[in-house]
Amino acid sequence: MGKLRLRKYAQLYLMVLPTIAYFLIFSIYPIIQGVITSTQKPRLLGGGEYVGLANYRDVLQDRTFWQALTNTLVLSGGMIALGVIIPFIVAIALHEVPFAPLRKLTQTIIYTPHLFSWVVVGGIWIQVLSPTRGLVNEVIKLFGAQPIHFLADTGWIRPTLILLNSWKGTGYNAVIYYAALSSLDPQIYEAATVDGASRWQKITKLTVPLLLPTVGVVFMLSAVGALRIFDQVFILRNAATTRTINVLMTYVYDLGMVQFRLGMSTAASFLVTLVGLFTVGFLRKAMRVDQTDLA
Questions:
Q1: Can you give the pLDDT of all 295 residues of the chain as single tens digits?
Q2: Domain range for residue 246?
Q3: Total domain count for the chain?
Q4: Between 20 and 30 A from 196 (CA), which of 46, 100, 125, 149?
Q5: pTM across the whole model
Q6: Which residues contact 13 (CB under 8 A, 6 or more apart)?
Q7: Residue 218: inside a domain
Q8: Has residue 35 been placed in a domain?
Q9: What CATH number does residue 123 fall under?
Q10: How far apart are CA 211 and CA 284, in angstroms?
């Protein structure tokens, strides 16, 4: 029976083999090799001395790791909050615009920053926020105030980074919300109009509750993305603000690529993965509880 089944589906099995080989070579093997490396003190010319869990212990005893974890949680919290709320408001506002060409133009303008890499975005905002000739500080000087070093002041760098991340990502999340809004049954709003509901009542009593599942999706996407932040921090950090915005991913990068402590860097990457899995699992469980309560 088994041989007949194998012969019957032999072509399908052969079609699956390249995919299996791809994951074995580029996913499973690197993970296994990473586990081995995390228990060694690697040498640059190959091989390494087995040290057991010493690399994990060194990471957990490193103050820089805990500072990076704190920075990650603070920055992630702000990015998730703005990444969920602002696009939600933008999408509802776009949906309420009656003039279709204006709505499409606005949607395009809002989405455009998402298409640029952080290298481009960082270069733009470094110029705009420059304390000498930056547009923002020129406006501040018009009111008689002193220029602000947004990217070099430890008190300003975190909110600045959060706002820039929101500016870049608002268009993407707004498109998700807008797609959900477009799929809602218009008869619901027509019935509400017949019942005498105002526009504000339609938004608060119909639109918001109907979009809660989509809010959950955007929340999860924002949470997963915020825990993996690297590009924006790597591009915008400097000697004055590194300790304030250094996150887990930049911590792993610095260990491996700057200090060449490959064993410790690999161990840190697995710990970062565990933090991400725990956070996502907790959020998923919390969201299920909320959905049960709503039901």
A1: 556 666 777 777 788 888 899 989 988 898 898 888 888 888 766 677 888 889 999 999 999 999 999 999 999 999 999 999 999 999 988 888 888 888 888 889 999 999 999 999 999 999 999 988 889 999 999 888 899 999 998 899 999 999 999 999 999 999 999 999 888 888 888 888 888 888 888 888 888 888 888 888 888 888 888 888 899 999 999 888 989 999 999 999 999 888 888 899 999 999 988 888 888 788 777 776 445 444 4
A2: 63-294
A3: 1
A4: 100
A5: 0.84
A6: 6
A7: yes
A8: no
A9: 1.10.3720.10
A10: 17
